[in-house]
C-alpha cells in the first residue's frame, strides 16, 4: 500500500462541486475516482483537502489516494490526464508517507477571488470573476479586512451551523487592484462552508459604502449570518494552494 | 429607415459560427437577428463584416442593421444586451449614414491568434488559445511572416476555391512573445476562408523547423493548399477590429 498526494487544477464551471454524489458524474471527486480506478484496475478513494462548491475553481486543490503498490508517478499522472476531461488536470503526483490524508493533514489554505469592475463585463473572463461595477473604496475594504484577520469565531460568516467549531484563524487578506479587476487573497488555517464567499460579499458591501468597515467587528461578535454581506458568486473563487508544513 | 452600425464581442466556443443557419439557433447572426427582431417588433437582417467559423471569437466584429426609424441607441443596446446570452455583447451602436453595409464598406481587418506554449495547457485559457508546447523559433517565424506581408494571391492559404479573387493585401503580421504565450496579429484588407488559421498553422510549422521560412514564398507562388501548414484550431482566433476609413 502506497499513499500519493495529488495537486489538481480545475475549471469548476461545468461541475456541481468537488464532492462525489450518488447519481451524477458531474463532480470533480466522482470523475477523479472513476478515472483513477480505470488506470489502477480497482476502486480508489480520492480524499480532497476540502470540498469546493459548484462553480468554484481550483489552481491547487490537493487530494490523497492509496494505491496497492508503487507506481511511476509521471506515467500514472500522464495516463490519468489523457482520460480526464480537459477542465480537470493533475498538475503533480508525489509519493508521500503512508497514512497522509489531504484534509486531516492540511495546515492552511489560500484562496483568491476576482472581481471585474469594468462597466460592461469582460466576455472572456466572465466564468472566472464576479462582475461588480459599482465603484469600490479599497481603503475601506482594507480597513474591514484588518478587523477580520486573526483568530475569531466566524459563525456569522457561514451558511452551515453544525460544524464542531466555528473558530478559524485568518493569517492575511490582501486586496489588490489590477487594472480593471480586483483580486482578494485569503490565507488562513481553514475556512467554513461559504466563508470565503460571504467574506467577499461583506467586503464588497463595505467597498460600496453600504456597510461601514467596523461592521466587520459587530458581525464577528454577533455571529449572525444576516448581519454579514451577500454570498459572492462561485465563479470568482479559486482554491489556490493548500499547505501542509 | 435608419441604418446603425454595431460592434459586437462574442465568445465563439458554444456556437457554430457567425452565419445564420436554417435549423439552429446556435449561430451568432441567428441569435442577434432573433433578439433585435424582438425589440424592434419586426424582422431585422443583421449584416456582419464577414463570417467567423465555429469556435472563433470576436472582440470587435461589426454589423449593420436597418431599422424603420430613429431609436435611442443607448436604450436599444442596453435592452438588447439584457436578452442576449452572456457570451454575446453589443459593445457599441452608432447611427450611420443610410446604406452603410458592414461587409461591403469594410476597408481592413485585424485578427489575433493566441498560442499557449506551456508544457501543460492552461486550464482557464484553454478555450481562447491553441496549446502548442513544441518550442518555437520566433525569428524564423518573423522571417516567414515578412514574405507573406504585401499584396499576393493567397490561394494556397484557403480551403475554398470559388472566391471571385484570391488576391489580398496583408499590411502587417506582428509576432509577440508574452510570458508563456505567443500572440500573432494579422492586419490586412481582408482574409479568405480559413486564411488566418492556415497562415498561423504555417508559421507554427516554420517555428518548429518543420518548414523553412522561405517556403512561404513557394506556397504563395504554387498556390497549393497542401504545401501550406495545418489549419490552426478556431479557439485561438479573435476578430479584433474592422476598419472603415
Biggest interface between protein chains, with counts per chain?
Answer: A-B, 15 and 15 residues
CATH architecture annotation of the largest domain in chain A: 2-Layer Sandwich
Unreliable residue runs of chain A: none
Task: Look at the structure and give the CATH class of the largest domain in chain A.
Answer: Alpha Beta
CATH homologous superfamily title of the largest domain in chain A: Pseudouridine synthase I, catalytic domain, C-terminal subdomain
The CATH topology of the largest domain in chain A corresponds to Alpha-Beta Plaits
Report on the biggest sheet of chain A.
Answer: 10 strands, mixed
3D shape of chain A: globular
Report Rg of chain A: 19 Å
Number of strands of chain A: 10
Provide mean pLDDT of chain A, rounded.
95
Helix content estimate of chain A = 10-25%
> How large is the count of helical segments of chain A?
5
Q: Would you summarize the structure shown here?
A:
The structure is a homodimer of 245-residue chains. Chain A is of the alpha+beta class and 245 residues long.
Structure characterization notes:
- The structure is a homodimer of 245-residue chains.
- Chain A folds into 2 domains: 2-96, Pseudouridine synthase I, catalytic domain, N-terminal subdomain (Alpha-Beta Plaits, 2-Layer Sandwich); 108-243, Alpha-Beta Plaits (2-Layer Sandwich), CATH 3.30.70.660.
- Helices cover 23% and strands 30% of the residues of chain A.
- Chain A has helices at residues 28-40, 73-83, 138-148, 195-207, 215-222; strands at 2-10, 47-48, 57-67, 88-96, 108-116, 130-131, 150-153, 167-178, 181-188, 237-243.
- In chain A, strand 8 and strand 9 (181-188) form a beta hairpin.
- The first copy, chain A, is of the alpha+beta class.
- In chain A, strands 1, 2, 3, 4, 5, 6, 7, 8, 9 and 10 form a 10-stranded mixed β-sheet that branches.
- In chain A, helix 3 (138-148) runs antiparallel to helix 4 (195-207) and helix 3 (138-148) packs parallel to helix 5 (215-222).
- Chains A, B: Keywords: Isomerase, tRNA processing.
- Chains A, B: Substrate binds at residue 111.
- Chains A, B: Belongs to the tRNA pseudouridine synthase TruA family.
- Chains A, B: InterPro entries: PsdUridine_synth_cat_dom_sf, PsdUridine_synth_TruA, PsdUridine_synth_TruA_a/b_dom, PsdUridine_synth_TruA_C, TruA/RsuA/RluB/E/F_N.
